[in-house]
Amino acid sequence: MDIKRMKWISALVPALFIGVFEFVRHHFMADMYMGWGNLMVAGVTGGLFYLYSHGVSAVLENLYHKLQKEKEETVVLQERDRIAREIHDGISQALFFLNIKAREIETALLQRREPLDEIRELQEAIKITDADVRQHIFALKRVAQDNRDLVAALKARIDNYQKAYGAKVDFRVDGEINTKLNSQVKNKLVHVFQELLLNIRKHAGAERVLVKLSEDGRRFSMVISDDGKGFNTDSLKTKRSSFGFKMLADDVRAMGADFELESAPGQGTRVVVSLNLQEGGYADER
To answer: What is the DSSP letter of 225?
Structure first.
């Protein structure tokens, strides 16, 4: 039953029923006491309305579940498309860099000198590229489950990060995280988290990373801090290399979240992403 048919039925059925009942009562049940007739009309109308509203509720619930399923599938497809673009861009950059190193090795051999430094740089670039591609493939495989369980999604990425890069990550959870956030928000937070981990691996040189998720019924927060090199936050306003970081902050704010950054040279970096749960629109809709 579609919405248009439901609208016509809801408008016509009560009028037709009352009209037919009154016709029958006046022509074939003239001796019936008017009060009993009114009670009968009210009772039968109430019963029909209950059955009709029950059917309407079932149809709306079915439509709601279909909408939620389509919404989740759209989020998954968008996330896969984003990861695919990142893999494409990352491989293109990596191949360009590897080609440069291969030419440097060729030049060194033509000059009859040992290209040991170039070979070591080439090996390191291959190692990093291989780890990045594996990280993206892992994310692509995990994206279908990410909208269900934020804690499990982040933990899986942390485990993979520790195995790939050898860094120590301390992961803490405080509160009912998964029931407070809907699937769309969860996937965006996973994307933000993954990008921050990638920045730590590429730029921070950190040995330890702390990740903490917490909620108190009013506010949710995700904190990522490291003991790496740190940097002067004023440089974000001028350096072109910080463009990706600025885009990430804009993405966080676009979803209605607050983005805080604290860092200083030699003192590591701390990023906080937080949501006001009382504003609505973030709760799990299932």
So the answer is: E
Q: What total of structural domains would you count in the chain?
A: 2
Q: How far apart are CA 149 and CA 81, in angstroms?
A: 20
The pair phi, psi for residue 174, each rounded to 5°, is -135, 105
User: Residue 15: which domain range?
Assistant: 3-65
Query: Which tens digits make up the pLDDT trace of 197-217?
Result: 888 887 888 889 999 999 888
Nearest to 198 by CA among 246, 243, 136, 142: 136
Is there a domain that residue 262 lies in?
A: yes
The closest of 81, 76, 164, 160 to 127, measured between CA atoms, is: 164
The DSSP bridge pattern shows strands 208-215 and 219-226 to be: antiparallel
Residue 262 and residue 159 in one domain = yes
Q: Are residues 168 and 266 in the same domain?
A: yes
3-state secondary structure 125-177: HHHHHHHHHHHHHHHHHHHHHHCCCHHHHHHHHHHHHHHHHCCEEEEEEECCH
Q: Minimal CA–CA distance to 182: which of 251, 282, 66, 275? A: 282
DSSP state of 266: T
Q: According to the 3-state scheme, what is the secondary structure of 180-192? A: HCCHHHHHHHHHH
Does residue 94 sit within a domain? Answer: no
Domain boundary among 65, 89, 106: 65
Tokens matching residue 36: 């009993």
Which tens digit of pLDDT belongs to each residue from 14-25? 677 667 766 776
DSSP code of 272? E
Tell me the C-alpha to C-alpha distance, in Å, between residue 142 and each of 138, 160, 187, 255. Answer: 6, 12, 11, 22
- pTM over 0.70, yes/no: no
Q: Mind listing the pLDDT tens digit for each residue in 233-285?
A: 777 666 554 556 677 788 888 888 899 999 889 889 999 999 988 775 555 54
Residue 116 in domain? no
